Every structure is written in structure tokens, then in C-alpha cells.
Amino acid sequence: MKKSSLFRHLATARQPMTLALVAALGALAAGLVMAQSEVATPPRQPATAQADQLFWQTFHSSDYAHIQASIEASTAAYLRDPNDAMTAAHVGWLHMWRVAESDRLQQRPASITDDIVLARKYFQKAVDLAPDDARFRGFLASAMLAEARVDRDAALRQQGADVMRKAVSDWPAFNLFTAGYVASGLPASSDGFKQALEQQWQNLELCGHVTLDRHGANLDRFAQNVAKATANSRDARACLNSVKAPHNEEGFFLNMGDMLTKSGDWQTALKVYAAAKQSPDYAQWPYREVLEQRLRDAKANVVAFNAEVPPGQKPTSPMMIGSSYACMACHQH
User: According to the UniProt entry, where is the signal peptide (predicted)?
Assistant: First the structure.
């Protein structure tokens, strides 16, 4: 998979259960490049490598129906070697994926929240084993915030926010997105949502080493700078498309466009949505029609994205964060 970048080519409170699911999405969505570990690891066991292979096969093929088989394989690998940070993280990611895209289910069972608890456990283990990996800390924070919303636990919510701030500080290019995506399901008028949207702008500015107009007037300046700013840097893994996140860029702009639409600024959302179409990988993106529909319906979606959804019902026009492609928009091959 080529790593050519869209950035280089760009001339570019609801019910507690809902909030819990929204928070969980932050760990497995657009912009998450789950490639190499940030720390050196010892040789891994053959069975662990097989579990890894099944993880990526299941994940990249969007095989949601067979998540449990991959959980079994990765958990068995973890039991053989509970000191392998990446295996622990894989178990956590699988549990988060199941809850994150539970919109695929005809009816969400109440017990889906157990996946959040398990994800937190395994991400905590990964953080303990690889404390220098800022990605793991961002995912842990997402799980903590999700669990806090399930339990209405203010103390845990504060702990999760503290962990997220540290993760953002340690790797801004990666975790500004994670932090913002987690909060994108909050009411558009809330301070949390406004901060989350600002974090998306900050993420773009960091990737492009440029100050951006908040109405998208100078996205061309961003395009001019981003290639040389990130192509050979650590931040390239967070800013560009990659083998592990083949449509990282398209998914980022889909989500950011959704957030701008929800904020009421559908005119700027159109510019951000259109930026995704400049990706050289756009023609292979499985969610092209989703974005094309967003471009057609942006103005109407201001109301749709802010609508209260009755308990037990699904939104007719969900934002990316509440959709069946909350993770796959970036990660599906």
C-alpha cells in the first residue's frame, strides 16, 4: 500500500448509554495508525504472530461477524505470554471495535458495555508493559472515559481526562485526533465539543506546520507544507495513509466534516469533505458514497446530527462516530 498523502495533494447530552458508546469509538477510528510499537520488544512466539495475523485479517476486511474468533485467538496468546504489550493491546482493540461499531447489530444488548470494561483492562496492561507508547495511553483514556459514562463515575471521568491530556502531550499528532473524536458525540453547544473540534484543527496545523483559517480559506497553504513536514518523520504515521490505516486521511476528513456540520458550519464542512476526495487512494476507499452523500446533504445534516435519538432507536443519519464504519472508515482495505 502506497503512503502517498492526501495532505501532499490537497489544494486542501444524550442518554448515558449513547455517550458511553460514543467515547468508546475514539480508540478505533480514523487517524489511528496501529503499526509498530513505540518501544523495542523481544522476539514473539509463533502462536502470537498467528493471532496477530488473524487480528489484522479480521480488522482490515471489516469482518465484524467474526470478532469473537479473533478475541479468542488474541486472548489465548495473551494467556501464554501476558507480558506482550501488543497482544494485550490487540485484545483491547477488538473489544473496543465490537462496541464502537455496534450500530451494525439489529439490537444492541445491554451487555455490550462489558466490552468497554475489558478494553480498559487490556489497554491498562499494555500501558503498564509499554509506558512510553503514547498510543496505548490514548486508547486507555478512551476506554476509561467510556466506562465512566456507563457508571456515571465522575472520579473515573477525571482520571480518564488526565490520562488523555498526558497522551496528547506525549504525541500530539496522534492523540489530538483521539481526544477530539472521543468528545465529538457531545452536544454541539458544549465546551467539550467545541474543544474537540478545535483539536481537529490543531491536528491539521501540527501535521502541516501551518496556521489555518477556521473556515478553510487557506487549506492550500497546509497542502504546500505538509509533505516536507511529515513525510520522513514520526508524525507521518499519525498524519498520512499507511498500510495499517490505508484510508486514515479520508476518514479524518469525513469525521472532521461531520463535526463541522454538527457545529452548524456546513459551508466549511463542504471544504473539508471535499479535501478527502483529493486523496490518491480515494478511488479505492470503500466509503466514497458516504462522503458523496455528506456533500449533498451537509446543510440538512446540521439538524440530523443534532437530533435527539429516543432510547432504543438508531439515528437515521448518524455521524461517523455513531455509525457502522466508525473504525472502518480509516482501516478497511
Answer: 1-35
How many Cα neighbours within 13 Å face the side chain of 174? 27
Q: What is the pTM of this model?
A: 0.87
Q: Give the residue-averaged pLDDT of 35-54.
A: 71
CB neighbour class for 54 (10 Å; exposed up to 12, middle 13-18, buried from 19): buried
Crossing angle, helix 134-151 and helix 154-170, to 10 degrees? 160
254 Cβ contact partners less than 8 Å away, ≥ 6 residues apart: 30, 273, 276, 287, 290, 291, 294, 320, 329
Q: Which amino acid is at 216?
A: G
Which residue in 211, 190, 193 sits closest to 202, CA to CA? Answer: 211
What are 34's three cell numbers?
496501529
Residue 265's nearest CA partner among 214, 315, 204, 211 is: 214
| Burial of 273: CB neighbours in 10 Å, binned 0-12, 13-18, 19+ | buried
Q: How far apart are CA 25 and CA 164, in angstroms?
A: 14
Query: Terminus-to-terminus CA distance in the chain, angstroms?
Result: 10
In angstroms and rounded to an integer, the radius of gyration of the C-alpha atoms of the chain is 18
b/e sequence 144-169, b meaning 16+ C-beta within 10 Å: bbbbbbbbeeeebbeebbebbeebbe
Nearest to 166 by CA among 151, 144, 147, 193: 144
Which residue segments constitute the domains of the chain, with CATH numbers given?
Answer: 6-331 (1.25.40.10)
Closest CA to 92 of 65, 133, 123: 123
Phi-psi sector, 25: left (phi>0), alpha (psi -120 to 50), beta? alpha
Question: What's the pLDDT tens digit per position in 179-237?
Answer: 999 899 999 999 999 999 999 999 999 888 889 999 998 887 776 676 666 666 778 77
